[in-house]
Amino acid sequence: MTPFDIGLIAIGVLVLLILIGMPIGIGMLAVSCVGVLFIRNETVAIRMMTQVANDSLEEYLFAVVPLFVLMGLLVTVSGVGKDTFDVFQKMLRRITAGLGVATVFANAVFAAITGISIASATVFSRIAVPEMRRHGYTRSFSTGVVAGSSVLGMLIPPSLLMIVYAVLAEQSVGRMFLAGIGPGLLLAVAFTITILLLAWSQRSFVFEGHDDATYDDIGLVDVIRKSIPIFSLMVVVLGGLYGGFLNPTEAGAAGAFGALVIAVMRRSLDRATFWRLLVETGQITVSVLFLILAATFFSRMLALSGVPRELSELFLSGNIGPYGFLVAYIVLIVALGCLIDSISIMLIVLPIALPIADAAAFDLIWFGVITVIAVEIGLLTPPFGLSVYTIKSAMDDPDLKVGEIFRGAVPFILAMLATLAVIVVFPSIATWLAQN
Fold it and tell me: Main location per UniProt (predicted)?
């Protein structure tokens, strides 16, 4: 067999192992090791594995992963999410479907200080959904809004998916964060327009009765008091990062410390909770770094086999062309999102797709934004729909069916596809800040 044949077989075997339930990191390591063994020999396979372990995990940059994860967990337990929703509820409740719009913007702000979509889905399913239900919104729409807007957590920086992509693509984390701002705001606006259109044209989908409930009225002083922790964290993290005062790792450290101070001042953090958050941070960090190690080894095995080079020639020299490849790539990612989680999709597909994107002369920062949006659509699509199942679990409502949440999320999936198309046609939406 030729190295190319071995590379294709390795990809097929990896997909099979994932389908039968093997953890993706272990599957990647096993397939990569055996692949290099057949392409070269046992000595090269062992040396490459040890070299990959050293190269993948020694970077100072990787300290950003536990720091941003810890910051997100501390923010979640400190009640900042509820404060964010209260502020936007006060500002937007007088417009039609204002609580839905408030949920979108609260999620957008919350995303800027957490970076994890599942955290957003968990927090706002417990805060926004009961409030919307109390004011006459349907259960499907209420949960759909939370599911849809939760994906902003992986697009608006800081974002764990952006970090993973930057590492795999060997791009600047800071530039990736900058590139996520424009598309993140565009997606928030697209969600807002979707809500307003639904409220105008499909009232029965949004409302199931008249809004006779009273609002919890908060004054200007309360709005300012609730806003200070939110915007203080945003200024420390994003201001320090984009102002050039902090690199991504330092910004993560500053954000984690700021979130810790807020949690302590609010007395929402006891010893047991803090220890639990530290353990959870360690578990998430180890799993992410192990997956990055496995993906790096997989990428080098594929490069050795010549599969990316051959596929580049197939896509770019034939009738398909660069944008034909891009469409096929987006369709593949959205389809994979129906079956496996976001990080796993990126780890499987990017080692193959990045060399083709590079050969097509695509801006890899722009390509990363497209990848993250396409991957995030998978959080809302059945049967996997991780955000949907997170909301179902967090709500603890036996009458709430998973199908209701999926139906409520459909308009937001369409909004994401429309936003993705706009960014493909107008790349500067993602690149203009990153180039400055």
Answer: membrane
The total of structural domains in the chain comes to 1
d(CA 143, CA 160) in angstroms, rounded, equals: 24
Among candidates 263, 61, 87, which has minimal Cα distance to 162? 61
Residue 386 exposed, middle or buried by CB count within 10 Å (0-12, 13-18, 19+): buried
Q: Tell me which residue range forms the domain holding 426.
A: 3-435
Q: Nearest 10 degrees: CA dihedral of 126, 132, 138, 141?
A: -70
Q: What is the DSSP string of 210-265?
A: ---PPP----HHHHHHHHHHHHHHHIIIIIHHHTTSS-HHHHHHHHHHHHHHHHHH
Residue 271 has pLDDT above 90, yes or no: no
DSSP code per residue over 328-362? HHHHHHHHHHTTS-HHHHHHHHHHHHHHHHHHTT-
Residue-wise pLDDT for 144-187, tens only, equals 898 888 888 788 877 878 888 888 888 888 888 888 888 989 99
Distance CA 180, CA 429 (A): 9
Write the CB contacts of 30 (distance below 8 Å, at least 6 apart in sequence): 17
Q: Does residue 298 contact residue 351 with C-beta atoms inside 8 Å?
A: yes
pTM above 0.70, yes or no: yes
Between CA 350 and CA 353 the distance in angstroms is 5
DSSP string, 304-323: HHTHHHHHHHHHHHSSSHHH
